[in-house]
Amino acid sequence: MRIFCVVLSRFLILAVLTAAPLSAQTADSARADSTRDAAGSYTEHQALLGDTVYQKNCLSCHETTYHTGEQFRFSWFGRSVYDLFKLLKTTMPDDNVGGLSDDEYTRVIAYILKLNGFPAGADSLKADSTAMRRIRIGTSQHADSARPPRRR
After folding, report:
1. Cis geometry, peptide bond prior to residue 93 (ω within 30 degrees of 0)
2. For 14, 73, 84, 112, which has the most beta carbons within 10 A of its beta carbon?
3. How far apart are CA 118 and CA 150, in angstroms?
């Protein structure tokens, strides 16, 4: 009987140790399935409206090049659209922080995505924090390639 208990306890330990990595893989898979790239996350019309909002509220301090290119990729690729939304809403415009509507901030984000070459899609970007958290600007693969090489 004692041998049976030892074998059973070892089996249970082995089962627990092999199940943990499987559950982590399942969680990673579910997280990957629930996120998507920013491509197609806004409409052309929304970006056009965002251009108008940008011209009126942002251009006096920020040229469009401020939100494009290598620096933008380095800072934002791999992060969520919500991260950008939250930053804009809590810091911009400088003379009226938080003074735009959520839809206006969302339109500006659509315009910034367009400036960075993300193609438009059929559905508008919604001012919904949960949905925005699922949309990644670029992918982690792109985010790594946009970072400057490490010095050795």
Report:
1. yes
2. 112
3. 27
72 neighbors 124 (Cβ within 8 angstroms): no
CATH number at residue 99: 1.10.760.10
Regarding whether 122 and 74 lie in a shared domain, the answer is yes
18 and 40 part of one domain: no
CA 101 to chain centre: 21
Rounded to whole angstroms, how far apart are CA atoms 14 and 24?
A: 16
Question: pTM of the predicted model, to two decimals?
Answer: 0.71
Among the listed residues 63, 47, 62, the one whose alpha carbon sits nearest the alpha carbon of residue 113: 47
Cβ contacts of 49 within 8 Å, gap of 6 or more: 107, 110
Query: Is 136 strand, coil or helix?
Result: strand
Task: Examine the domain organization and report whether 93 and 127 are in the same domain.
Answer: yes
Helix (H, G, I), strand (E, B) or coil at 37: strand
* Total tally of structural domains belonging to the chain: 2
User: Domain check: are 111 and 76 in the same one?
Assistant: yes
Tens of pLDDT, residue by residue over 25-51, are 444 444 445 788 999 999 999 999 999
